[in-house]
């Protein structure tokens, strides 16, 4: 995949950065180093953030033992209301209004969340007269270690750097993430242009080379980040970070099979090293998610005969692509 063919959209570059992060995070350490002092594993998510700020790539560093305990609460993410319930549910039966901290919204929404938690088997409930009593199924684990944000800019020219600089300054000031990075394409110049741009000095810089495929050696550190100091109060910051970590846990990053059209006969997945990147035969490029939609003039649905195929591509190539991407999103980083 050439640079021009591979990065005609930031979307395909983003997929490569995410796959590299799965393979090689944290940067600068030998992959699979048994002597590493970082007793963590990690989850990679794409397009994740708050209503004020969305990051291209998020790396959630987690404690492996605590992550195993998180599995008791199911594979699906826990939203803020469910987190409020499971993090504070008592070890013994108690009326939910006495067991849980008073929320800053009406109790009826807490009651709704209690019922949702019970329906998902992540909370024990019973009735005691007119009251609903609750008891935890297990303590909610302290599984999140660090949250790292990466902004992906394959071509970081001066105007892009100015816009990105403002966003990174916000990230540095708020300190919701522990580190922020910029990933950009390596130019091979003596001094990488990204080092000369007006980016916050607290942001790390990764330069990438994906011409020959994505693998653990596809990125290198050109500038180390500074660990950020949070400005939110500890309880608020912990809650927001857990919400983001839960979304990463439940959704993964390869969800583009749900927003693109693998059922189009022009859609295919091309292997690029250890990454799978979508390719549009009609346009002759690695398309973006916005390009690959039902409104596309080149959209050509697979004929019914394809969708009726049996083994080894049951349901046709489009269905096979959807299954493959869904399986890879199921916490399979191999």
The tally of beta strands, per DSSP, is: 11
**Terminus-to-terminus distance:** 21 Å
Main β-sheet, in a few words?
6 strands, mixed
Helix content: 25-40%
Number of helices: 10
Q: Return the domain count.
A: 3
| Class from helix and strand fractions | alpha+beta
Strand order of the largest sheet: 1-2-6-7-8-9
Q: What are the low-pLDDT stretches, counting only 5+ consecutive residues below 50?
A: 1-7
Can you offer a commentary on this structure?
The chain has 334 residues and is an alpha+beta fold. 31% of the residues lie in helices and 21% in strands. The chain is built from 10 helices and 11 strands. It has helices spanning 3-6, 10-24, 64-70, 80-88, 96-99, 107-119, 158-174, 234-251, 304-307, 317-329, and strands at 41-49, 54-62, 94-95, 123-128, 131-136, 144-152, 179-185, 204-208, 219-223, 267-272, 275-280. A 6-stranded mixed beta sheet has the order 1-2-6-7-8-9, sandwiched between helices. The chain has a 3-stranded antiparallel beta sheet with strand order 3-5-4. Strands 10-11 form a two-stranded antiparallel sheet. β1 and β2 form a beta hairpin. It is globular, with a radius of gyration of 22 Å.
Describe the protein's topology.
Layout: H1 3-6, H2 10-24, E1 41-49, E2 54-62, H3 64-70, H4 80-88, E3 94-95, H5 96-99, H6 107-119, E4 123-128, E5 131-136, E6 144-152, H7 158-174, E7 179-185, E8 204-208, E9 219-223, H8 234-251, E10 267-272, E11 275-280, H9 304-307, H10 317-329
Parallel strand pairs: 6-7, 7-8
Antiparallel strand pairs: 1-2, 2-6, 3-5, 4-5, 8-9, 10-11
